[in-house]
Specification:
Blueprint: H1 26-39, H2 46-70, E1 83-86, E2 92-95, H3 99-107
Antiparallel strand pairs: 1-2
Helix pairs in contact: 1-2
Length: 111
């Protein structure tokens, strides 16, 4: 009698698929695995969660830094006795000291 050997092949379906095309750092690798697990409702590890939080913090900080760099600013030179006055709209004025104080400073200045 001849035995017939049939190959038994098992098809294994993966639990989740991870897209690693844009991964450059280890944090991004852990974050990619964590997000892929989260998409199929599997629990992620602490390292994956920490990597996701680190990426979120770094992205937020870089966006805030870019936003603050684009803000216009103005320099004010304040001499002795002058004050900055802010109004409710955010405008700034330099208030000079009293006329008598300025006159006294002019009289007593060193030559």
């Amino acid at each position: 009698m001849k035995k017939t050997n049939k190959k038994v092949t098992k098809t294994v379906k993966p639990a989740f698929i991870v897209d690693l095309t844009n991964v450059e750092t280890p944090d991004e690798l852990y974050a990619a695995f964590g997000l892929a697990k989260q998409d199929v409702n599997l629990p992620m590890t602490d390292d994956e969660l920490v990597a996701i939080v680190n990426i979120a913090i770094n992205t937020t900080l870089s966006a805030l830094q870019e936003a603050f760099n684009k803000l216009p600013y103005k320099e004010y030179n304040i001499t002795n006795g002058e004050k900055l006055i802010f109004d409710e709209k955010g405008n700034v004025k330099v208030k000079k000291p009293n006329i008598f104080r300025r006159f006294w400073n002019w009289v007593t200045r060193k030559k």
